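MODEL INPUT / OUTPUT PAIR
PAIR INDEX: 1
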Amino acid sequence: MIAGLGKDNALKGCIMALDIILLVCVVLGTYIVEYYFFRSKIAHIDNMPALLAIYIFSFLASYSIYPAIVQKRIVKIEEIAKRVTTTSLLMFLFVSLLTLLTKLNPIFPRTFLLATFFIFTPLLFLERILIRKTLTNVRSNKKNQKNILLIGGESEVYELYKTLKNPAYGYNIIGVFYDGEPTANDFKKIRVGGLGDIYEWLATHNNVNEIYGYIPKENQDLINIVSKFCDNHLIRFFYIPALDVFGSKMSLSFVGNTPVIAKREEPLAKPTNKFIKRAFDLICSSLVLIFIFPWLYIFVAIMIKIKSPGPVFFKQERTGLDGKIFLCYKFRTMKVNKDADKIQATKDDPRKYPFGDFMRKTNIDEIPQFINVWKGEMSMVGPRPHMLLHTEEYSKLINRFMVRHLAKPGISGLAQVTGFRGETKYIDQMEGRVKKDIEYIENWTFFLDIKIMIKTITNMFGGEKNAY
């Protein structure tokens, strides 16, 4: 067990050493390129060895606060990206402050510092992904493994068992203790005893690294025995609480010292994720409104006036975040009619005019919604906003329909890129859309947004059968 901890520390040390080597290469490489190719355009750095030492010291300081997580056995790619960005930003804050305080250069080398930041950060992310891939391959070949023991019946630990038995994570499940009879054959095969046999078995086996267990509260004495044994033998003990009150994915948090359970995980409820999503929305909407919207508006306005006299914009009240009502903008794709707030567009809808039909098929009619995104009423990606009448109707017919309003509505969404776009003739179509919207809310990541945006663009050029 001590050897196992030593291996983990050695792995962390190797990752840190690779990070420093990469940093030195980036700093020196940037210096050489700027010195020999752009010497007349930048302030000359007087003391490069001292500046390099500042970079290394700053990285070590940042690393001590935000160490690498790539070596963890179960970690998401977006978590790695977030940690790399945080570490890199903090490091360059330290570099900037120390460079100013030490006065290494008469003129602050901001061009050099910015260049190294924008080169080092993506390269560090790439390096960590390669390390992750290497570790996954090594662990899949039954090396760098951890021996773990499970305690608890099928209903308590089987989901965890299915996750941990993935060879890529490097866990060797050496046994499970439970009372009763499970239904899964693979779970039966690894049973080594009942709850009453745990201590005797542990006393004769010294190859356990971690224990994951659910022990009923009435067996408090057994919990204390296992916990004390683990403390005395360098075994990490993870207790699995019984959190099946809602029968679905949940979120555990604390109000002061009191644990509370939320019915679902909401990544966008976290301030950091909110900031990332809002910053991305602002950047994208600003770029579209500055560089695309003005000339597109002129062209579309002319076509609308020729094909269907009336207003260029169609404005409609729709349901937004937390059920709040906002005015949603679109290019008008139909003739002016009194049923616009009551009836969905259909495939051969007589209210549409030819150019309006073209805008719907290519998503051009949605471009004005970048105004809503810029105002903060919508997001680039999220559940599509519905007209008020549909919100009222479907909230009575479909279970959990209102959950989709826990996130800002989006120009595109997970439901739209997975086949639930356009007219909803049947209730099961709307149920499918709601299911995908809730899936998005519970599993949001920045990379999921990027994936949905890419899929939306490819669908736009490839054509969608439900786009009418």
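PAIR INDEX: 2
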Amino acid sequence: MKHVLRVTLLLLLIGLVMPLVAQEKTLTIGVDQEAIGLDPHIVTAFSSHRRIDLLYNKLVRHDEDLKIVPDLAESWEIPNNTTYIFNLRKGVKFHNGIELTADDVIFSLNRILDPKTAAPGRSYITSIKSMEAISPYQVKITLSAPLASFLEGLSSNNCAIVSKAAVEQYGNLQKVEVGTGPFILKEWIPDNSMTLVKNSNYFDKGLPYLDKVIFRVIPEQASLFAGVKSGTLDIAQINDGSTVLLAKRDPNLIVMQKPGINLRTFGFNVTRKPFDDERVRQAISLAIDRNEIIAAAEFGMAQPSGPIPAGATQWALPLNRLPFYTPDLAKAKSLLSQAGFPNGLSLKIVCSNSFEGGLSVAQVIQNQLKKIGVNGELEVVEWGIYIDRWNKKDFDSMVELRGGSGEPDRFLYRTLHSTGGVNNFLFKDSEVDKLLDKGRELTTYSERKKVYDDLQIMLAEKAPVIFLYCPYETHIMNKAIKGFRQIGDGSLYYIIETQK
């Protein structure tokens, strides 16, 4: 009889425990690239930033309409155009249990400003003159000159707030994370998966709704689609146009699309011959047909763009106002001849077999350049090597996907100023520097608009990089997924409100 009672009690306990296990809400996200480190002050790859979206916070962030809203700073004051006072949320804790204070904010921004960090976000905040902790929850930042894009720069993952204690312990945070975000890193199996678990102490009470988020690395777009279709994946960012068309025909799937602000580019190392000659770069620009590239590489799911993302309509000039942006093969050949290449020339194009690495784009460009006698040899490299070549500026030319912004200073200064943190083209031009410096100091829209109009025309003419288009942000998911919202910069922040 006792044996029967024990068995019955055991079965009852199992019955009580099993529903608890079954109720764990796990979202599995399919991605085509592995993260290249997790230190927000160092990384540049989108694959890393999509994890950082869920692990760290900034002082301010973007909402789904790309407006600046509170994050770690619940409010701020701007008593004059060079002074910002941020009021921090109280009781926010890093994942190591230490409370976030003004000291961590000042430490993080100083770390970004330190040239030894080689932080891509440094150009966003170089105008910082001084920082002061008024109290543990209040930071006063004084700028050396007005910077119209200051809050926009602080909204970047590259300006995330990190734990001073963690950096002192680990040196850098590439393989670990100690953020304040809604999820905590539990396990990372390189080139396979990354598992994040809910931060039960997250400052936005009641969030996140999910208990666990798993990123699965699946390089092939068709396999990502198959995973969502079969239910082994809940959501995936799909960039291959033909795959997206298949998904749109499936009544059991949801396809979310939004015009993005990230920019596909084709740029040159202008210190290498013959790319140090403006005429060669102009000729190549005149051979590029953006609509043809979008049709072939994106199945029409992109928006042609100049130096400022086309979606930033208050700033971006129409392409017909930009010199060398309308295809003209005869003029292109004439420019090559003037530059000393009447019979054409050869160049190498670095790319990678992934969406961000732009192999399909490079293939279309290769065919377009043949029409003006330019032989483009594709250097198709593995993703890690691609990033290494990018960091070392080791390329003749390179197809990229660059993180854009609706604020022109934030994107163009870091990309093309002679001191820009991600000026991988090694482009230095005093006229461009002058306009970039002026644009970030002016505070009225009408004055800034004139500067950035002139700058866009100048950049199209000097052509250190050819701006191609802005791809759509596309996510494919099962109908059981609720609450997910897209942000034009590709951020996965709204996983915090996603339910399954």
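PAIR 2 NOTE: The chain has 15 helices and 18 strands.
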